[in-house]
Write a structure and sequence with these properties.
The chain has nine helices and eight strands. Strands 7-6-5-4-3-2-1-8 form an eight-stranded parallel beta sheet. It has helices at 2-22, 40-48, 59-68, 87-93, 103-112, 139-150, 170-189, 205-210, 220-223, and strands at residues 30-34, 53-56, 75-78, 96-100, 120-125, 155-161, 196-198, 215-218.
């Protein structure tokens, strides 16, 4: 568990150094610790080390951890594929949702968000490349979906999210992140004031920050390796 604290220090240095190199304010870039498949005890260590925002991919796994950590003021993000029959739990138990790609799901989240809670912050997941097994709205349908989601009550459309094709080459990484940033700018020109780009993971956060990421999603870099065979959202 002590490695988690050390890992967070290393990540913060990476973010600082990257921001320095591309002329950005490090305060503009927020770390989201992706805790799927890691125990509640590891989240508690990270929280005590100053990390407040955590993300999960699977609803039932997340709910169990939330019960164990209910005494901590954690900001919970949902970044996994959204099943229609899980929208009530997601709308009730999370502060952010990054993976909306269908109006049907957005409407259900809107309907299920309890009125006594603040509006649910949401991002639209964009499919930047034609890859089987990955969710996301196609870029040519993004503007219509964004306009419709922005009009729904109890939701606050904040920005866009992507899981780009895996690459170890920084120019290729930057290509996909620049594409998402461009799509965000196009939506802004339509009057949608989006302030969030959820992009960048353990192996490509430098490229994401260079292209304007405001929220990097890191799991392995924070908590160490996870079992193989789970979806690559971090």
């Amino acid at each position: 568990m002590t490695n988690v604290t050390q890992n967070l220090l290393k990540i913060r240095r990476r973010i600082q150094q990257t921001c320095d190199s591309c002329g950005r304010d490090p305060a503009e870039v927020h770390l989201l610790a992706v805790s799927k498949k890691h125990p509640a005890a590891a989240i508690r260590v990270a929280f005590e080390a100053g990390q407040k925002a955590f993300a999960e991919n699977f609803v039932q796994e997340a709910l169990g951890k939330q019960r164990q950590l209910q005494n901590l003021a954690i900001e919970w993000h949902f970044i996994g594929h959204i099943q229609s029959n899980k929208t009530r739990e997601i709308a009730t138990c999370f502060d952010w949702v990054h993976s909306i790609d269908r109006l049907k799901v957005a409407k259900k989240l809107s309907a299920h968000r309890p009125p006594e809670q603040t509006d649910l912050d949401v991002c639209l997941q964009v499919a930047l490349a034609d890859e089987s097994g990955k969710s996301g709205v196609q870029p040519d349908r993004l503007a219509d979906l964004a306009s419709q989601v922005a009009a729904l009550p109890r939701l606050r459309l904040r920005g866009l999210m992507c899981i780009p094709p895996a690459s170890r080459e920084p120019p290729r990484q930057r290509h996909w992140f620049a594409r998402l940033a461009s799509l965000r700018n196009e939506l802004s020109q339509l009057g949608l004031g989006l302030d969030t780009l959820s992009m960048g993971m353990s192996n490509d956060l430098e490229a994401a920050i260079a292209e304007g990421s405001t929220l990097v999603r890191l799991g392995t870099a924070v908590f160490g390796p996870r079992p193989s065979g789970i979806d690559p959202a971090t």
